[in-house]
Amino acid sequence: MPRDPLIGLVGKPSAGKSSTLNSLTDASSKVGGFTTIDPQRAIGYLQIDCACTRYNLTDKCKPNYGSCDNGRRSVPIELLDVAGLVPGAHEGKGLGNKFLDDLRHADALIHVVDASGTTDAEGKVTRGYDPSVDIAWLRSEIVAWIRGNLMTKWGSIKRRHIAVKATAVETLQNQFSGYGRVEWFVPPPPPLCFFFLFFLLLSNMAIDETIDRVVNAFTDEKFPTVIALNKIDHPDADKNIAKIAKQQDPNSIVLCSAISEIFLRKMAKQGYIRYTEGSEFVDTREDLIADGDPDGGGLKELDEKNRNRIENLKDMVLYRFGSTGVVHVLTKAAEILGLVPVFPVRNIATFGSGGVGEGMGSNKGVFRDCVLVKKGSTVGDVARKVMGDAPIAYIEGAGGLRVAEDQLVAVGKNDILSFKVGK
To answer: Is residue 161, in this structure, part of any structural domain at all?
Structure first.
């Protein structure tokens, strides 16, 4: 059955990875916190446009998990926190092999980079460090790790391939299946696979170059990466961001300030400000009074220190970049994975979770559930993800129309489904 997507957070020590993780998760969802040695799982919240807005049911939308605020839905997504990597990780430095090995479970990576240049490659305090180096060496560590795993078994791979008379696809699937992404080699395979097989069987000429090409192509496919340039409020960040933007795909980059997001959420939770995650606007008691609300929205009065910090944060982050960027980190990760939100309901007429008698006004709410599936998934894939092995008699879409299991799901198309159990 299709599993839930898993996004790994990686980065060197002191890059702000822990702050980024904390800003992506709801504090109440974490159990036991996070250590710096063993990888931990957490629940982040991806913001999407909820289906309730299409039917003017925003006031009745009550998710079982996450939340929905006026049609802006926060959908839980699993995150994997991997302790800080250092150069030479594939050789075992800093327990690197263990950390790299844990990455095999991730579908995409968020590489948190210290854009300020105030920490060196090992996370030690410095000034003027070039953070573009971190992006290059992290990828090289992953490539070297995969290549090392492959070359360690190279002789036995050749012998087994010949002994069992395997096809190119079978051999490649067998070698890369341990990384949880065998579908990359489902026919028709990429042309690189034919190069791989040709040199594997006929000669050892140029074998190193060919393997490098295959490993690099596999790394790109297996580990699509969002580059989260953190600490954008530091004065040295601008020049580093400009350099990285010229070297990397701009669509893979998100500018963020995790510590700013954590501070704003904390102040909002304590009743000092009015703030919506991902927004560029922050309202204080003084702001609301100036806008004509004599009670200041019921907010507490800020002391001078925090008032100045918020004003500086507005100028240096919110107004300049449009937000702290943290919410957009997960959005970008979902985008590169091609995730599609699908809303399973029991009653396709009311979009509720109950039976036929449950009306639109039911206090149980509508669109209680939402699952994330990869782009290209079919209605049948969603059925197996939601219903498991239960026999499905038929499936209904919006409007009560039956849909075939081989139809694709997409935003606004076959993304509201009701599964009818039976033979």
So the answer is: yes
Structure tokens at 421: 């159990």
Domain shared by 344 and 313, yes or no: no
SS3 (DSSP) at 282: strand
Q: Give the predicted TM-score (pTM) of the model.
A: 0.85
The 8-class DSSP code of residue 85 comes to P
Tokens matching residue 68 = 């929905």
Map tokens 């990888």 to a residue: 39
> How many domains does the structure of the chain reveal?
3
Alpha carbons 241 and 340: distance in angstroms, whole number: 30
Which runs of consecutive H residues, i.e. helices, occur in 104-206?
132-152, 154-163, 168-176, 191-202
pLDDT in tens, 368-385: 999 999 888 999 999 999
pLDDT of 148-170, one tens digit each?
Answer: 877 777 777 777 777 877 766 67
Q: Which domain holds residue 414?
A: 340-421
Q: Which of residues 220, 236, 253 is at a domain's end?
A: 220
One-letter amino acid for residue 47 of the chain: Q
Query: Phi-psi category of 143—alpha, beta or left, where left has phi over 0 and alpha has psi -120 to 50?
Result: alpha
